[in-house]
Structures are given as C-alpha cells and as structure tokens.
Amino acid sequence: MSVTTLDPHTALIVVDLQKGIAGLPAVHPIAAVTAKAAELASAFRQRGLPVVLVNAGGRAPGRTEQSQASMPLPDDWMDLLPELDPQPQDHRVTKYTWGAFLGTGLESRLKSAGVTQIVLAGVATSMGVESTAREAYALGFNVTLAIDAMTDLSEAAHINSVSRIFPRLGETGTTQEIVALLDSHSV
C-alpha cells in the first residue's frame, strides 16, 4: 500500500546517518539518501513537527555467527552527517541495539508529545530502519517508510525489507509523496 495519510501528530525518525556508517559501501549513493532525509527533516521542522536524529553508539552484547570487529571506533564515528542540518529542537537518540526504541526513552518522549505516527528514513534498511519500524509498529504507532531516503549494504536485504516486510508494518512512499501529504494539510 502506498502512503495515504499522515496523522496530525507525526514525527520523523532518521536512523544512523552518521559519519562512521556513511563510509560503508551501500546499494544507493549515501549522498542521495542523505539529501532526501534532509529534505524530510526540513519539511517536518517547517511545520513544527518533531524530528528525531538517531545514531548508533555501538552494538548489543551477545554472540553471533557473523564475526564482528571489535576495533576502536574513530572519534567522529557517531557524528551525524552535517547535511542533515541538526537543529537544537531536534531530539537526539543514541542506540546500542538495531532499533531506536529499546532502552532509549524514545517511546515515552513521542507519546508524551502526542505523536501517533512516525516516518522513517536512514540506514540500513534491513537493520536499523526495519528494527525501528518493527518496534514502532509493536508499540502502536502508525508507520510510514520513506523508501527513497534509505539504503542498505545489501541489495537483496533492501529489496526484501521494502517489498515484503514494510507493507506489513505500515505504508511506504517517496519523500515527494510524504512532503505532498504534509503540504495538503492532512496533518
């Protein structure tokens, strides 16, 4: 289903568009993804709607079959990409799991602000974005996914999330479609 509406109290959540992750090889050019996320952030800010900028500060402990490097990270690894033009009123979340809700206080912050819907953008489609979408859906938020404002390290994983997972969690649309809904006074 394509994006059809935005609730009056919708927030934008931008996941992991940070220096340490932006340098990884992605399916879509990170500059284009960041530009779309920045366009969404600007549109939300202009309408006084919340913008949440999420960065990854590490990962949850635990064993995995896939090797995970434990090298020290560069000092600027967690820094948000400057193209997002972070503003003082933006809410910032540092996460240590794939999703932005677990252990961060994000749910209570959004619900206390009356937010009923979130729009998601960022990287990686099949990890940080999908995990945040799954958590938001489970917490009762309406979910919209800006599919041209996200990318992944794997094309197959990106396609799977966009075509199979996201339609079960919410509505998908492009940045242009989402901004048009903002413009149509449906929020």
Automatic annotation (TrEMBL):
InterPro entries per record: Isochorismatase-like_dom (IPR000868), Isochorismatase-like_hydrls (IPR050272), Isochorismatase-like_sf (IPR036380)
Gene Ontology molecular functions: hydrolase activity
Keyword Chloroplast: no
Pfam family, one: Isochorismatase
Hydrolase keyword on record: yes
Record keywords: Hydrolase
Annotated SUPFAM superfamilies: Isochorismatase-like hydrolases
Isochorismatase-like domain span: 10-177
Protein name: Nicotinamidase-related amidase
Lineage, highest ranks first: Bacteria, Pseudomonadati, Pseudomonadota, Betaproteobacteria, Burkholderiales
